[in-house]
Structure formats: C-alpha cells, structure tokens
Amino acid sequence: MNKKLLAAALGVAFAAPAFADSTNMVIYGRVHQSFVHTSDEAQNPEGGNFTLKNVASRLGFRGEEDLGSGLKALFGYEFGIPTDNSNVTGGFGLNGRHTYVGLSGSFGKVTIGTQDGGSASVAPLYNQASLIGSVSNNGGDLTTVGSDVVSTAEVIAARQRVNNSFGYETTILPGLELTARHALTGTNDADNGATKENGTRETEVAVGYTAGPLYIGGGLWSESSATELENGFNGTSRPERVVQLVSTYTLGDLKLGGIVNQVSFYGNAANGDDNDINFALSALYKLSSNAGVFGLVADGEDNANNNDRQQLQLSAYYDFSKRTRSYVGFERFNRENKTTGVETDADSIVFGLRHNF
Known about the structure:
The chain is mainly β. The protein has helices spanning 3-14, 124-129, 226-231; strands at residues 23-40, 49-54, 58-68, 71-80, 95-105, 108-116, 161-173, 176-184, 200-211, 214-225, 239-251, 254-265, 275-288, 291-302, 307-319, 324-337, 343-356. The chain has one domain: Porin (Beta Barrel). It is built from 3 helices and 17 strands.
C-alpha cells in the first residue's frame, strides 16, 4: 500500500475528523541485520563466535501540524523491533526508541521527550560525532560512535538517547547551527523523596559551522549529580564532563573526518588520572554512485581500567538502491594494560544488509 494512503487511513482511524487532514504524518522504518564472526582473546580465547544480530531495526511515525503564523507542532513515536529473535519478554518485543512532541518556528525547534540521535530529534555530541562516517549508519559492530559516554566497545563514544529530556535546535547565522539538550536522568520520584529524576542531570551543547566542503564543530557534555557533588567521589569512575571537537572535509569523492574529545571523571581509583583523551581519523571514498570504501583508526584511553585502546576498521558498501545497502567489514579492537603491557585483540568480520522504508 502507498505510504501516503496508509498514513491517511491511520489518520482517519485515530484522529478526530475535524483534524484528520491538518497533520502531515510519515510512516517509516528500517530492517537491518548483520552476520558477525568475533574472536576475542580476552573473553573467548578458545575460538570465535558466529552471531546473527538485529541492528537497531525500527518502525516509526513522525509528522507536523501547521498551526499558522509560521508555528508548527511536531511529534514522533518510534519503536525498536528485534528482527533476529521475537521470543523475548513482552511478546514480540517492541520497545520505545524515541518519543517526542514539540514546536518549531522562527525561534528554532523545541522538543520534549526521549531525544534520540538516530532520528529527527536532539543528541548534540552523538550527531556531531556521527559525521566522521560509517558504512552501517553508526549501528552494529562497524560503528564509530557508542551508545554511552564511556564505552567498552568503541574508542569514540557519545550519548545517543536519553529520557526525560528537553531539546533545542536553531540556525544562528547561515551555516552556523546550535543544538542543545538537557535531561533529567535520575530515578523517578519515590514516595519518600529519596530518589528524584532531577537528582542527576545531563546537559549538552554543540555548535557546528559548515562552509562549502568544510565542517567544523565542537561540543560540551556535563553531568550534575547530587550524590557526587554533595558526597564526593563514591569509588566509581563516572564521567563528569566531555569536551569534543569534530571536523570533516569533502574533496570530490573523498571525505576525511577527525574527532578528538576529553572525558573528565569525578574520580579514578585505578591510577589517579581523572581524564581520558580519545581521537579518531576516518576516510570515506566513493568508488561509484552506489559503492564505496571506508577506513578508520582510533586511539583512546581507559584510565578507569588502566588500559589503552586502539580501533581499526576497513569496510566497503554496495547500495542496490537508495533504500537497500549491503556492506562487509573488518574491525580490530586492541586493549593494552598500561602496567603489565599485556595486549588482547578482538577481531570481527561483519556482513550486513539494511533496508529503509
């Protein structure tokens, strides 16, 4: 069925007749699977492991309503779908990926809800870091951006999705954009007042400037925790602040990217160093209109565990159409203990197929 007809049918079914034709709604989704062979010297020294993985497959609804005078209402509701295994708790296993409602106008765009960098809402540092590239749209094993500020799987990482958040986007000047997000990441209010959503707060601000083939951007992430600030370091290395710089340059069919960030912690019991420095360099080259190759080298510190981490990726993609992509890649993730000098490698070979609709 044509998507516009389906959207119209759903609008008639679920909306009041008087407003059924005033909202522009889009139904979209993605089915994304990968087949991965991983050999990890630290976790599985006896041999490799084959895995069929769901890579952030989803079904979503988003749209806007024209309220007049340049003001629009925005909304989105997206579900994650476990396409590799539906035998999970909760039946088919639908889970919320992002949900937001907001307003846009001459002042910019304001959204409230779950802010997800994979969709049309705000995740400043994640969206900025994603610009350095990936064959799999920053999902799955061949990703350059993790799902947390401090990640054990990727050298470069940024927070993608948070709940209870307020987002803002605006164009300051031509080519100069500002994005910001503030989230209440504590536990829901308890009856006795012991735990509160605003007990821990995260704030992100990113600014990016685009001038032809050049992009330059920077961002700041910070956490304000009542527990840490009032009681001091509690014995775990929790991030307090991230400062990030990103740049990309496109020269014909070649796109170069680079990122560097510093992660500061409330404390670090391992060796007294309360800062991690991470960087990555990438290159994406288009072989044709529907094929290309990608490479990335990254180096990062994991002072919480007294480790250095290196990451290497080599991959290629082929697009059967504007909606369907296949890709293959190799990744090596190396850990080196700073004290003992012992190194362990985790190697992955990944085959992926993704279809957007």
